[in-house]
Amino acid sequence: MSFSFDSKIGKKILSIIQHYNHEKYWKRRSIVTSPVARTPILIKLYYLYYIKRTDAYHKSSFGTNLHSGAKFATAPNLPHGPNGIIVGHDCIIGKNCTIFQQVTIAHGNVVIGDNVLLGAGAKILPGVTIGNNAKIGANCVVVEDIPENATVVMPKPRIIVKEKQ
Predict the structure, then answer these.
(1) Which among 28, 57, 86 is the end of a domain?
(2) What is the pLDDT of residues 121-162, one digit of tens each?
(3) Which one, 31, 40, 49, 118, has least CB within 10 Å?
């Protein structure tokens, strides 16, 4: 019998080792930030305590701000945990997005499509729309709209690949 971190027991062991359970963290965050959730206040406070304890363990309490007004279609994939990620209060982030460490998404009507990859240190400025399946390289400063299926690299972004559909 082989062991896998994708199994139920494997995920539990991994969450104990990493002090971060992705599903639990994002489920509890959605309950705490939802203004229409009918969850008792003591449960919400406990969930907030869990979120803050997890953030503090990863030393991301001061460097991380996933604002409660940001709308996530599904929980994003955070390969390195929530380290230094800042998301503004009126951002809309699509399904199955991958956000690496130190990414900043400024508030100001930022819309990010589905299946987008945001590389480490990327900065998304206000009013930008990023299309579905786009890839933003590390340390890019995105100041203009990015079309679907584009790959963007370098500090001043340049589209290097635009796949045809």
Answers:
(1) 57
(2) 999 999 999 999 999 999 999 999 999 999 998 776 667 777
(3) 40
Distance between CA atoms of residues 165 and 103, nearest Å = 28
- CA angle, 44 then 108 then 128, to 5°: 120
Q: Decide if 75 contacts 53 (C-beta within 8 A).
A: no
Select from 104, 99, 61, 63 the least CA-distant residue to 81. 99
Residue segments in the chain with a per-residue pLDDT below the cut of 50: none
Q: Cα separation of 146 and 43, whole Å?
A: 40
Domain identity same for 82 and 133: yes
**Which residues span the domain enclosing 138?**
65-165
* Backbone phi and psi for residue 155, each to the nearest 5 degrees, phi listed first: -55, -45
Q: Report pTM.
A: 0.69
Distance between CA 144 and CA 121 in Å, rounded?
A: 17
CA 68, CA 29: separation in Å to the nearest integer? 9
Is the same domain home to 9 and 41? yes
